[in-house]
Amino acid sequence: MDIYTLNLTGLLALCGALFVAQRTPNTKSPKPTKNTNKANSQWSFLVVYALVMGADWLQGPFLYSLYHDEHNISSSLISALFTTGFVSGGVSGTFIGSLADRHGRKFACLVFCLAYSLSCLLTISPSAAALPSIPLLLLFLGRVLGGLSTSLLFTVFESWMVTDARARGLSDGDLSSTFGLMSTLNSVVAILSGVGSEWLVSTTGTKKAPFVGSTVLLVIAFGIIYTQWTENYGQSGGTSPAKKTTTGVTNKLWTTLSNPKVLSLGLASTMFEGSMYLFVFFWVPALKAVVSADTETDKGLPYGVIFAAFMAATLASSLAFTTITRKQVLGYASLLLAILGTSAACFFLLVRPKTEQTTFWLFCLFEAAVGMYFPCMGYLKGRLIDDGVRAQVYGFLRIPLNVFVVVSLLFTGDGDAGTVFLVCGTLLLASCGALWVANVQEAS
């Protein structure tokens, strides 16, 4: 058993221990309450969430290699395609939330399934060698739809869920548990998707197979959303009796966005999620550079096993998040500060060359921070942002994130990972200061 398989085994054992610890019964099992029954009614959301995240994870790891190996596209053109996706995500963030609030979050989720399915199908269009111009345009259109879909994925689904939970009368504790379960589900789905995508590629002999699999998952999600979900709107949409004038909604939107607490959360999300995207681009070259500097011969890194280990670290931390919040070990804002501070420390320690295993475990520690970040940030935004403009605010908060990633990629390219990690650590530390100054802990 090689060292990375051993590491993965240990992390999975930790996940199992945390899962068993959460299921250990107390003296008496509480009787079902109305809120428990209402929470159980969210099963359709969790099933859909697992399907759409599975569709994202299934094809994501093979996007670059599909472009390079099967479409025979140059590295510079691949970079342009990726940048197109982030620019599309930034631009769509200016109007996605408003349209979702006006026309319905359920409707926007259905649009996501259609747009992402079309993006996957366009991505596996005929290679540029067969038809030089038309397929290239289709690939760029696929990236535009991919960026649009990403904005929808991280905006409308959470907006629908939080508003639906409020309508059902779920408590803040129920909402926190849902966010924790979403993070756990995402980690499990990521591990299964990684294994599943490898199996699809090895069975079919083409890297187009995971994209077809993603489309199937999205079709299933579309059917569940269409038949099981109810619609909810922002203050500017639908036939809601709380419907307001456009001016009133705009004023409320900018009032929310100008709230120092919301601004500090927006800064934190930009810095953390931007650093996460950059980490995705740079962890492979950073780890390879350390391996090459070691005395041992580089026999090739088992990227699939390493990726699974990262996801296992994320799963372990999402399970720990549920325990920490349930036992009220830390408030949500204090936990977010700890997450950002730990992430900054990881990046600072990664600036100078380390041993292979030290680098690996620092990466795992950052992935553990990711596992706690999303449910913690989701809960805090759920408390601070009004349901009437929720999707719009979420959409606007993703604009600086996409700008940050695009600018970073343009300036770094294939540059030194250590410099990128240093910048990420510094910006994460600055976001900690912004949260502290804004006194966000009042929101928790």
From TrEMBL:
Name the source's superkingdom. Answer: Eukaryota
What membrane topology was assigned to this protein in its record?
Answer: Multi-pass membrane protein
The places in or outside the cell where this protein is found are: Cell membrane
Q: Does the keyword Transmembrane helix apply?
A: yes
What would be one Gene Ontology cellular-component term for the protein?
plasma membrane
Q: Which GO terms describe its molecular function?
A: molybdate ion transmembrane transporter activity
* Pfam families to which the protein is assigned, alphabetical: MFS_5
By its UniProt entry, which InterPro entries does this protein fall under?
A: MFS_trans_sf, MOT2/MFSD5
Q: Say if the entry is tagged with keyword Membrane.
A: yes
Q: Which GO terms describe its biological process?
A: monoatomic ion transport
Q: Which residues cross the membrane?
A: 6-22, 43-64, 76-100, 107-128, 134-157, 178-197, 209-227, 262-283, 303-322, 329-352, 358-380, 392-411, 417-438
Keyword field:
Cell membrane, Ion transport, Membrane, Transmembrane, Transmembrane helix, Transport
According to its UniProt entry, the function of this protein is described as: Mediates high-affinity intracellular uptake of the rare oligo-element molybdenum.
Listed name of the protein = Molybdate-anion transporter
